[in-house]
# Entry
Amino acid sequence: MAMVLLAAQSRGKGVTQSQLSRLDPSTESTSVLLETSKELLKNDQLEDALPFLEEVLVRLEGDEEKKARQTLAFTLYQLAYCQMKLGEYVSGARNFVRFSDEFPEDPQQESARVMAAQCLTMVQQWPTVEEQSAIVLQNARLAEDLKIPATQLLAEARYQQEKWADATRPLISLFRISKEETVRAGAAVMLVTCYVRLDDFSNLFTFLPHCDEAARHDVGLNVALLEAGDSHYNKGEYQKALLLYRLVLTKKELVQHYENRLRTVKGQMKPFVAGGSQTLSDFKEMQRKQQQLFDRLKKHYQVITNFQDYDMDVMLRTAQCYNDLERNWPAHAIYLRIYDENPTNSLADQARFSAFAVMLDEREWALATAEGYDYVKTSPDGEFVDDVTLNLMQVHMQQEQFDLAYDIGKKGLELSPDHKHIDQVKYLMGYIRFMQFDYAVALENFREILKRWPDSRYYESAEYWQSMSLLFLGSFAEAATAFEAYLTNPKYSPRIYEEDSSYRLGIAQYGAEQYEASEGTLRAFVDKYPESHLLSEAFAMLGDLRGAEGDMDVALDFYAMAREKALNMSQVNYPVFQSADVLTRLRRYDEVVALMAGYIGEWGEQGDFANAANWQGKAYKAKDEYPRALNSYFELVNRFGNNANLGGVDLILNEVISDYKSEEWSSYREIIKDRLDVHLKAASDSNQRTLELQYQTVFATILSGPEREPFVDSVVQAKNVPASGANTLVLIAREGVKREDWETVHEASARFISNFQVSNNMLYIMLANLDALIKEGSYDDALDLSEEILMKFGYSKSVGWARKRRGDVYRLQGNYDRALEAYKEVLGIREWRGELTPEALYCSGVCKMELGETAEAFAYFQRIYVLYGDYVEWVAPAYAKSILCLEMLGGHEQDILNTYREMLANEAVAATPEGIEAARKFAELAPAEEVL
# Structure
């Protein structure tokens, strides 16, 4: 048999299956077994060699003879090698380890351990891989060709066991000693992953640049970066988290990388080609490794493809870091990108809300509001719609846009009947209505909170504002009961509104005419809250209570204490002027003068010096010392009158004008004029232009005819607008309308509105501006201004002129139906009846004529001269128009003559231009004897 084997070997054809079938390993001699094994190994018939090698091991077991031991070592090593090559990794590893343990002096024992570790990596027995590779590396003089793979195996074993700190040592060594860039890159990526897990930022960024493209695309590394970022984020270390998130590659990049790798590996798995340089066993082993690599890459690929929201998740985390670092603009940009690119994704809703939230943090109200409304519009059933609507309410309230706040709160409750912040929304809606003086609706909201949500954090506030609503509704007795209920409710500790409610209770009791209780409440309040910001007001109320009882001296004492505790001008002013009233009733006029002088001296232009001047003047007049009253007026005008932006001077000068025109002080008219002249000259000489204009305006107001015109000409000029006070601006605007100087009217109006918001003349200058807009043809602006006047001043008498002018605009535009509606409004408001009525009737008749409704037009004109005969300026044209209507209707010749007779019988009407023309026409139409 040995000769057969040798013959086959010499021919290089290996051992045929026919020959193997005739060999029985259990019966052949050991030498035949060895020779056969060697031949089979030489010809890569590894699977066939296994039974021969195993039989040799059995036979040599326990034989301590040197040659037998050498044969045993050879056999054991070859058996392990065959098993490894055939994919029997567990058996191969066990025999490599056995070889190394039993033959420590064998030159191949270290390589055997390395191969044992390599086998064990294939079955992922990482603890044993670590053990075997560590034994090999104990040899400080280990050959380089073994040191690198052993180090690599040890590093991977510890890495796979997540022994991050232990893994770094062999990985650093591998990175240093390896010459292959792919090995170094692999070590670098594992080092980066380890340092990520160890929170070692310094070393992380040391090795990250050494990760090649393939390594950087490792899913494990990217997931590790993501998880580490989360860890730092949860610890509040946002800067570190952000750095890690920004290292994570996108899903698209990872997917493309793995698809390329999978194609490459698959392409390398080709069928075996006989006769090549690679043996079949080497081919099979390589195929197994390639398949294992393919499976690992496929697993990683599935991880990343199954991570549906991977990119959005990373972007969301990155944006959240920017947000927490108060870098809101980059956060906002990322949130926008998330929902712009993936509007249907589940994370888009959160991104859309976050885009809104970061703009709130940035206090970019306009952009935040836009984002919020966009969310409500596009995601009405979104997860965050409750939070968005509540926050929009708060933004609008912060900007004092109360109507918008109320509307979005209402919208939020419509979209989400079970709004998670429903009690807060209802509370804010009630508060808004309270601030808008709609106390009844506010009360409804507060009562609903108290009824439905007893555990709401807004319950106490609702109870307080319920009481306030009742107080402002004038339900004083009910308000007093509500405040008492709040102040005795044991539910609150401490009470947020206790101090304010204690004061308001006294006010409610006063309103309910419970004067004794009110005084007791207020006295208790000043004792309990000596540092309260309401202390001054409480003392003032006590003064009012004592004054009402006729206890004037005590009232004055309380007013004095109120002034002493005052924290603002309002708290100063009320007790000062109440004291003046009490002193006046007591006829202690000198004390009034002294009190006002002290007030003006202390507060100057910060205080209500006009009111103080009025009280001083009243005191002097009561003493019949008018010249001293006049001097006190002019003293204050000269002191404050050259400040073009200061209100109040006009009120003092109005008092002078009123005195000049009144019969009571008519004997002092010349004195008033003389004093005005002296002060005007002084203002002019001292170049105090505003003060000079103030006095010129007074002259233009009290004088008439030619005597007036020089003052009007001097004042009514565009160049004077910047230096003009309130009264002067009104004069400029009104006279500017007469002179058709529209631009100057607009400039005067704009300056007045900007600087004198609380002036009594506001309506009149707005009316002048309205006239200018109509005359120059700016009809849309005129209509807007008419609406603004109505909103600002309601249905007060003078507003009727603005509404009548609104009708004029429609009439001038040819929109006669709208004009008639406007005139009808004027005619329907009782407060506007009087001189406006005939004018509105006349204009209505004109509209009816233009619409061809001549009979109805005639009725309007007839009403004027039948019912409003005192208004000649409208009676005369009404007669003329009624005659024209009769002519247009035809067949009314006698009615026309009768109307002429009636018209000319009124001497005042006959003297008007319309009357003169009527007389001429009547002469042509009437019988000769009647004309004569």
In short: The radius of gyration is 52 Å. The longest helix spans residues 280-306.
